[in-house]
């Protein structure tokens, strides 16, 4: 049985995407006016704009101010249209996270407490449930909390400040890979591997696990960049 999205934004994303993929909204066509769409989908204009922005980031739509929203492609390619491009490109965002979070995970493995590990277990379990139910907003929140908990435990205030000041960009980079439906549980499995390394207090394994996770997430969003692991 198909899982049903539990937030109105996710439901709108799913419905519009299915219509695009089915050809109900052909490539090059203009979507119905936002007022009509919001009434049809029983969603607020603000939530609809969030859904349209996500679909634009996936490369399915292009929003032309004053002209409307057009179907750009019937196939999601997240890297084609990244809404934070003026601040940081999508490849640069993943590379920044790869560099900073890899170091943070190594430090966190040396400082993680039993209470922290219990928190991570709860977080990972909640993420599995959210992804299985296609609750992508909740999964993205849990994903961000997981990563920032590691950064906080690492105790490097400069790294934490950089990542928290880029919170919206970081969250979007975490959300995009979820739209590869066939790989939707990959983030859960990769977080599980990171947690296993933290539980073992193995700093090398923790750093490698989070770097592998970020590189894989980037690939699920259509971004590829060379890493030390890839060269090994």
Automatic annotation (TrEMBL):
| Alphabetically ordered keywords of this record | DNA-binding, Transcription, Transcription regulation
Per the record, the coiled-coil ranges are none
Q: Which SUPFAM superfamilies does its entry note?
A: GntR ligand-binding domain-like (SSF48008), Winged helix' DNA-binding domain (SSF46785)
| Protein name (Swiss-Prot/TrEMBL) | FadR family transcriptional regulator
Domain named HTH gntR-type: residues: 6-74
Checking CDD domains in the record gives: WHTH_GntR
Q: Name one GO molecular function term.
A: DNA binding
Alphabetical list of PANTHER family matching this protein: HTH-TYPE TRANSCRIPTIONAL REGULATOR LGOR-RELATED, TRANSCRIPTIONAL REGULATOR, GNTR FAMILY
InterPro entries tied to this protein: GntR_C, TF_FadR/GntR_C, Tscrpt_reg_HTH_GntR, WH-like_DNA-bd_sf, WH_DNA-bd_sf
Q: What organism is recorded for this protein?
A: Paraburkholderia lacunae
Q: Which PROSITE patterns does this one have? A: HTH_GNTR
**Which SMART domains does the annotation name?**
FCD, HTH_GNTR
Pfam families associated with the record: FCD, GntR
